[in-house]
Amino acid sequence: MTDLVIIGGGPAGMSAAISAYENGVKDILILERDDSLGGILRQCIHNGFGLHKFKEELTGPEYAHRYAKRVRELGIPVKLNTMVLEITEDKRVIATNSHDGIFEIQAKAIILAMGCRERAKGALNIGGSRPAGVYTAGTAQKLVNMKGYMPGKEIVILGSGDIGLIMARRMTLEGAHVKAVCELMPYSSGLARNIQQCLKDFDIPLRLSHTVVALHGGDRLTGVTIARVDESRRPIKETYEYVSCDTLLLSCGLIPENELVSGIGADISPVTSGSIVDQDRHTSAEGVFSCGNVLHVHDLVDYVSEEGEIAGKGAASYIQGTDVRNTDIKISVDGKIRYSVPQRITEKKDVTLYFRVSGVYKNVRVNIYGDDKLLISRKKQRVAPSEMETVKINRDMLDNISELSLKLEVVQ
Amino acid sequence: MYDIVIIGAGVVGGMIARELSFHKLGICLIEKENDVATGATKANSAIVHAGFDAKVGTLKARLNVRGSEMMEQIATDLGVRYKRNGSLVVGFNEEDETTLRSLLDRGNANGVKGLKLLTREETVALEPNIGKEVTCALHAPTGAIVCPYDLAVAAIGNAMDNGVELKCNFEAVKIESRGEYYAVKSENGEILAKYIINCAGAYSDGVAKMVGDDSFSVHPRRGEYVLLDKNCGGIVSHTVFVTPSKMGKGILVSPTVDGNLLLGPTAVDGEDKEDKAVCPEFFASIFGIAERSVYGIPKNKTITSFCGLRSVGSTGDFIINSPLPRYINVAGIESPGLSASPAIAEYVVQLLRDSGLNLERKESPVTKRRSMHYFRDADRKTKNKIIKENPAYGKIICRCEGVTEGEILDAIRINPRATDLDGVKRRTRAQMGRCQGGFCSPYILDLLSRELGIPYEKVTKNGGDSYIVIGKTKEEKL
Predict the structure, then answer these.
(1) CATH number of this structure's domain A120-252
(2) Which of B465, B466, B470 is closest, CB to CB, to A150?
């Protein structure tokens, strides 16, 4: 029996482990499938991490190192090269590695921190041939930054997610020619700062409302057909355009890697593809918590760490039997706001809501209603799907309400 | 000097090689690509047809029914995934029902067992998600599904266990008849053999011409498919066809032996035997068509899409003959070629025997093969025993499909050996899941590079120039 099993040793899992430990739970085990702690940060060698958390600009490995060091200092056990195969409803964790074989651990509580995966080529319905030379941006990042190999030299990137933007710059710095970044939507899905620093500063064209409709080439990619899309995001045949390239990188969205959750019956949000959680990141499965990109995809690792802390603290209270459930408030959104995390509040205390909008909106107010009463109204000049927003709800606002609704209202 | 050279290492060439390998013969199997099972064998509907489609009296009909009867035992012997899930051909109106009745009669005449015409109610009882407009269906309980490349790889592996030699990247470009034997020439040298069996698929007419036989031609018919996530396979248990037309069996909806859902194929006649491009417009139509047969197919669960080429012969039937001494055509093997493949092998062996070849069976040929999935299918206790002996089986490389390093090393080390990423994929399912190799392909690159003793830059996706990386970073040549 282990008090707390944490699945995933990336930024979310490490932060959750430290937080649980500091909140009194000492019997913790981190299971990590790779050969080192750090998760995807290990291959993110660019800087810009930690601005919120440490007020300095760190690279991914530096940011990860601060947490990995703390995990070691606290003596929290970690099993590396260990893949969790299944979690059962009674919180048995079944995992495998070369040393122990397939083994089981009975946990009092579990924190899910498995991260996310990139949307793959197959899911994008791209026509044409099936040559070598098509990679997700993250795979290319691993090849370049960790293996030291170049996937190609004439690059087209589909999707303007942050990894794609980072890789546009990275490939350019390594001597490749990035010919275009095509984005299906009329706006970028990456952070504004990345558009500036990774594309504009290097004169890489961003082609909004464009997609790749076909791949060309026999053995290796020789080019792609790109096209403008109409308002319903369907390619317009008259705008088909051939672009020669030997490499297509895909940065078309991230999907929480939640397959393990099917074994425990936790409710999954169709919007985030992550679990539905309360303010402590407690899922609907008793004693199972979730944080980081497996819960919802973040743009900043600083928020991931913050969420790990919340989940770690929440799991500690649960294990110690000190968690309080004195209300049940549903949090709803209006569609312009796509989702919020958490989706429900079960304990009256100060809670920060993290949310994303569904499109680019200017001059809006984020209004938060407790049942029908306006509690908070925040003016925003611009909101975009790529930037996560937060709003803090004070404990005293939660008295005598059954629902919090988040609404985005355009200022006249 | 070999007794026999088989040209083409698809499922047909593979099954023939296996059957012949039980005999005291020197056999070479040649393949123009970097791996076996890379033509029509890797991209088809993965169905073992019951046998009601082909016209009565044709080779197609006879070999289909016989092949379907043989398949389960062969799949068991070779450790290949096979499931007799039954098939349904659905109709939407009275005209379809008439066609289904004639299919029923044809199936009975072909010797297909258990065929039955069902009402809508009976169909819904079998398949609750059947399309709302479906009015009737032909039920064929002997229809089955199998993994075609798994079958070909296993058959060829079994043949190699019996001494058959496999030469990949060996494309026949010229054949010389030198009296008592043939010389099959390629850019990589020549092979001498007394007998030639032409199983060259889309290129079998070209091979026939090399020996002076221009009695037939083969043209490619494109078939596009989409494959959906493993959590979609349960939407139907049967293979669901629509009532056929002259272009083929129409768009089917079928679970695969691995639990995915397969939709397709389209049918477009073409000229180019290498054109396996998926038409960008395909995606807009496929779901609408499939939705008519089966209700509630999720559109956002696509894992991959691909195009296969059927080898359509000019005679309308399988072309299995011997126009010259010691030379056999096995051509025009379109659907139901996979289903018929065990029976085709049996038939070709008979043709050879009839032509006077001395076929003496080995005393104890290897007829069975350990399944490539033996680890995956084992219980936990057995798995732990295997991991203890070889820790590589404890380490998961492909997280989506749960494939271990041990299984990937098996694919690279066991005949016929995988030497590229797609070869590993076909043998193990690594890279075949939701992330399509996003996470695991760099690890598999490592293993291929190490095992084959070649640098990273030389590892390919599927042979030829399909390189994954072009060189190290910081190199001048960029």
Answers:
(1) 3.50.50.60
(2) B470
